[in-house]
What we know:
The complex is a heterodimer of chains A (141) and B (161).
Chain A: H1 17-48, H2 56-65, H3 68-95, H4 99-126
Chain B: H1 10-18, H2 29-39, H3 42-74, H4 76-86, H5 89-117, H6 124-158
Helix pairs in contact in B: 3-4, 3-5, 5-6
Amino acid sequence: MAAIPKAVSRSVPAIRPRLEVWLWAFMRISGVLLIPLAFGHLAIMHIINNVHNINACFVYYRWNVLFWWRVYDALLLFLAYIHGLNGLRYVIDDYVHHRGWNRALKRVAFIGGSLVILAGTIALIGGVRVTALPQGCPPLG
Amino acid sequence: MAGAETVLPEGARNRWRTSEQAWAPASGLKAIVQEIPRYQGRIHQWAWVANRVTGLGTLLFLTVHILDTSLVYFAPVWYERALVLYRHPLFGLGELILVGCVLWHGLNGLRIAISDFRPRLWAAETQGRLILWTLVAFLALYIPTFFIMGNVILQKSILGR
């Protein structure tokens, strides 16, 4: 009476099942970590401060006075963006069934996303150069 | 659920067996939009739809935001120009929507993560209640945020004080 047929071949092959399980766990773990990280970031940058009093000087002081802000921002960058890219992969797999388009879109997302993370990482390490500070912003030390 | 299998008619069974896309939801934007009301998944489905939409919206914003913040290192002059652009009221509206997206995605995601580790919670009725609580938490956080941020947009971006 078993009504459910055995394996139905999928038009979109999943990436290796073991990796899929790790990504499932990553989505949960990063998601839970992102709640304090992202909500805290929003509270500080969008509610307590806002786009009207943030400038290069603000970023310079935030990143240089307390080193841990860079760690905070790095965590936010990696966790949030990888979480988002993997979410995009789920959406592409759900709706784009054409094998070629599916693969192409995921490849574009992966390469583009890697470049975005790379740009963010370089900026986080490089920081704000003293020569680039706006007027009325004394450099530290 | 033992003994509760649905027996499909022979024709449908063969179609399902041979169809390559038996597992998949609709393909193509029009089909997706048509399928959403047809599924009738009540509040559970809308929580899921909202999760997808807010997630994609946040990803789009993140892409722009990481790139513009990296300008502070690569091209500081352009960083200041980007900030001037962000002070426009339209971007203020976008910022309000963004904060709503992140709030919903975070709270709803927390519900999913907790339910995954306590699978008994996945009972449809329990989920219905949990989703309502998620909505209450969302509104409790978002309404004050909306007024604080809206006030800044009104005072600074629109009235220029």
